[in-house]
Design brief:
It comes from Vitis vinifera (Grape). Pfam families: zf-UBP. The chain is of the alpha+beta class. The protein has a domain of about 90 residues: Zinc/RING finger domain, C3HC4 (zinc finger) (Herpes Virus-1, 2-Layer Sandwich), CATH 3.30.40.10. It is about 20% helix and about 10% strand. It is built from three helices and five strands. A five-stranded antiparallel β-sheet has the order 2-1-3-4-5, covered by helices on one side. It binds zinc ion (3 copies). The site of one zinc ion (ZN) has 7 residues, from helix 2. One zinc ion (ZN) binds next to helix 2.
Length: about 150
C-alpha cells in the first residue's frame, strides 16, 4: 500500500503586518527613526539613480516601486510582487527608497528613516526628489552638514 503522503504543505505564506506598514506610510504619525545602524551598506554613488518611472527589474511592474539604496535595483513593493522584500531576504540589502512617496525604509530596523535627520540620506533623497518633482526638496539638504562634522576617513 503505497500511501503517498502528499506532503503538500503549500508554500506557507508569512504575512508581515501589511496593515501597519500601510497605515504607517500614509498617515504620518509613525515616527521615523533619526538613526540607523545599516547606513554603511548605502551605495557610494547615489547621485546616479534610475528614474522613478523605472519598472520593477523582475516583473516589470510600472509603479509602486522601491529603489534599493545598496545596489540601486528597482523592485516592486510588498503590495505588488514583494520583489524588494525578497531582495532584502536574499541579499540583505535593507535600505530602500519608495518611488511613490520618497519615504525611506530600513528592513533591518523595520522602520522608516527620517531622510531629513540622517545626513547620509540627503543626497539620494534630494536626487530622487528632483527626478520625481523636477525641483529641489523644500527642506535644506546641505544646511546642517557643518554641524555633524564630516567623520569621513
Ligand atoms: Zn516585481
Ligand atoms: Zn540591493
Ligand atoms: Zn537600519
Amino acid at each position: 500500500m503505497a500511501n503517498q503522503a502528499s506532503s503538500s504543505s503549500t508554500a506557507l505564506e508569512v504575512l508581515i503586518e501589511d496593515e501597519e506598514f500601510l497605515y504607517g506610510a500614509e498617515s504620518g504619525w509613525v515616527e521615523a527613526r533619526t538613526s540607523c545602524d545599516h547606513l554603511a551598506s548605502l551605495s557610494s554613488d547615489l547621485v546616479h539613480i534610475p528614474t522613478p518611472e523605472t519598472p520593477c527589474n523582475r516583473c516589470h511592474n510600472p509603479s509602486e516601486n522601491w529603489l534599493c539604496l545598496c545596489c540601486k535595483e528597482v523592485l516592486c513593493s510588498r503590495f505588488v510582487n514583494k520583489h524588494m522584500l525578497e531582495h532584502y531576504q536574499k541579499v540583505n540589502h535593507c535600505l530602500a527608497l519608495s518611488y511613490s512617496d520618497l519615504s525611506i525604509w530600513c528592513f533591518s530596523c523595520d522602520a522608516y528613516l527620517d531622510a531629513q535627520a540622517i545626513l547620509q540620506l540627503h543626497p539620494v533623497y534630494e536626487t530622487a526628489y528632483i527626478l520625481k518633482f523636477g525641483q529641489a526638496p523644500p527642506f535644506p539638504t546641505t544646511d546642517n552638514q557643518a554641524e555633524a562634522s564630516t567623520s569621513g576617513n
